[in-house]
Amino acid sequence: MRILSSDLLAAQRSASAVPYVLVPVSARIAHTVRLRWERLYTGSEPESHHASTAPSDGSLLRARSTGGQLYYQRVANPGPGSNFSSWTPLASVSATAGLALASRGSSVLLFSVHTDNVTIHVRESSDSGATFGSPVTVATASGAVTWMAAALKSDGTALLVYSVGATVYRVKRVNGVWGSPAPWSHSLASVSGLACNQYFDFDIAVAGSQSSGVAGLWTVIYGDGYSQALDTWSPLMELTLASAGSSVQFRAPSLAVMGRYRLFFVEKYTGSQAYSRAYWTHLAPGQTFVSNTWREPVVMDTGGDFGLAAAAGPGYGWLSTPSGVWRASLSAPVLELGEDVLEAYVETRPREGRLRVVLRNDDGRYNDLSGGAYAAIQRGSQVDFSPGYVTASGPVASPGARYWIEGWDYVNDRGRALFVLHASDAWALLENWRARRQFTWGAGESAVYALLRFILGRAGLGFGALSASDTVTSLSPAFTIQPAESGKDAVSRLLAMVPDVLLVSGEYGFLVNPTASQATDYEYGVEHAILEGRYGFRSASFNRVQVFGQGLMVEDFDWTSVGDIYDRLRQTHDRNLTSTAAAQDRADALLRHQEMQADDDEVLVPVNCGQELYDVVEVTDPRAGLSAARRRVLAMSFRYVRNRPGPAYEMRLRLGAV
């Protein structure tokens, strides 16, 4: 249950409580700002290696190499109407090698490769790229350089990564001195792009292919002592793959922190109807680079073999190619709807949550959503529904559930003009993620916990545990997600293996292990009134369980139920269960979930602003002979109606056994 202030607790228990709701809308999906890219420049520059960065003064720096010439551009105050077509030639450079730009504060580094294809130079600026010093040799590569990427720390430490053939090298500057180049500790058959950013460590993305012919995009960390030991490489972590023979390759990744880590790259297809298409992805909420928990990449309406150079400046994210510049605001203005809310309805069940909000539209304020404050209302926009009351210290709302708009209706209700929003919670985001390819994990490779984190991350959701069974981290099943399978179905199959349930809260999914010993979260019937109650007892759909594992079988029984209605059998087969202890845990979990359905209670109460699924509550209702009876919340519905006959502010709870 969400924690409530003493004033809010007192108000929701009062017979004269006055409702108060907050309903903010913002251009976010899974609480991540939805970037709306506006193209500011369309030029005729040819495709080529290019880079960009945004120093702290708000300028935008771009570099490109075309026909063996290095060109540079600085736009001091970039925006609509800026001149992005003026380039300054700096030097003759390799006609085939990449280049790199990196900045931190007002310091800027510009890397290029000499015409000999092996000598790497750096030019440094201390005034946000307004002027540069003379080129300095960083390293002499062992062969022709292809791709480069770099990152800079606030203390002047810098890292350059570059590729020679299929090998990635790193060279690092510490205390103003460049060290010697060294190859990484991994092996690929080819490299088709590099990106680098310094956040806590030096975070890197690598595009290329394996010796098997599988094309891929991987992330890897060069340690700066945070999540990876200093000056060591982490394992390569797969982000996306394409099968050998698919005619697909990945190219030109770019990294930037735009609110959270965002990664851009190119998917290039060379078969019939060939294309080079840009994609973007971002880290899931609450996840760090080392988790490698990325949202499913999203296609963009642009392309090119050399990709998009990403940069994050004050207030804006920037994307560029030699012939294009795009800008997107990093903020998501909030539109508060609370004063316009006439009715609100919430349905919350395991694996589903829906919101319907009825708004006044008598003056047509919601008729035009194309601009201004009301432009926040778009399909996919985030709606937070926070219930509250007018308390002794003023109106207070509890941070409530979070939904995403599926659509809306304009309604003529007997002369009343209404605007009705329909939204769904994070379960819908999971359901709408469909696997683009088969994902397979062998037995012992990844625990259920990690598999759940991966699936939720692909839907753009964060993941954690409020309480968790031992099974969720000890069981590492053979598991496959088939192409086109939804995230919701995949998660449901994993949850069937463990005693835990998944509580969706905002943009996160949290594991909860619903044990019978769980502490009571709230009480109804004494201080918090029960308006209506129905308390039922039902026969179990099964009371005997047989679990078959790999060469083993265990049983579990609800003997009281067997004595009443005879045995009702449930059988489960899972070759992932290789020990009797694991099979017994599965049997116990199946009976445990069945036991929670044995009580079938329903109470109608004034709104409890902190109530959540799977909370344990105590119910006191002398009319039904109940005193501090412990129950578990299995479903909730919420109704708020004002300014009509029969105003309401109430919550209906479906309760089961603890």
Description:
The chain is mainly beta and 658 residues long. It has four domains: 6-29 and 333-427, Trypsin-like serine proteases (Thrombin, subunit H); 35-329, Neuraminidase (6 Propeller); 430-505; 527-637 and 650-656, no CATH class. It is built from seven helices and 50 strands. The strands form eleven sheets. The protein has a 15-stranded mixed sheet that branches. Strand 10 and strand 11 (107-113) form a beta hairpin. Helix 3 (448-458) packs antiparallel against helix 5. The mean pLDDT is 96.
Compute the number of strand runs: 50
Compute the number of helices. Answer: 7
**Shape label:** globular
Using only CA atoms, what is the Rg? Answer: 29 Å
Helix coverage percent of residues?
Answer: under 10%
SS-derived structural category: mainly beta
Give the terminus-to-terminus CA distance. Answer: 15 Å
Give the helices and strands, then pairings.
Blueprint: H1 6-12, E1 19-22, E2 24-26, E3 28-29, E4 32-33, E5 38-42, E6 50-53, E7 60-66, E8 69-75, E9 88-92, E10 100-104, E11 107-113, E12 119-125, E13 136-140, E14 145-152, E15 158-164, E16 167-174, E17 177-178, E18 182-183, E19 190-198, E20 202-209, E21 215-222, E22 237-242, E23 248-258, E24 260-269, E25 275-282, E26 298-303, E27 309-313, E28 316-321, E29 324-329, E30 334-336, E31 341-349, E32 352-360, E33 382-391, E34 394-397, E35 401-413, E36 416-424, H2 426-432, E37 439-441, H3 448-458, E38 462-465, H4 471-474, E39 479-481, H5 487-495, E40 501-505, E41 508-512, E42 522-524, E43 532-537, E44 544-549, E45 552-557, H6 559-565, E46 569-573, H7 580-596, E47 599-606, E48 616-621, E49 626-641, E50 648-656
Parallel strand pairs: 38-41, 42-48, 44-46
Antiparallel strand pairs: 1-33, 2-30, 2-33, 3-4, 5-29, 6-7, 7-8, 8-9, 10-11, 11-12, 12-13, 14-15, 15-16, 16-17, 16-18, 19-20, 20-21, 21-22, 23-24, 24-25, 25-26, 27-28, 28-29, 31-32, 31-49, 32-36, 33-34, 33-35, 35-36, 37-39, 40-41, 43-47, 44-45, 47-50, 48-49, 49-50
Helix pairs in contact: 3-5
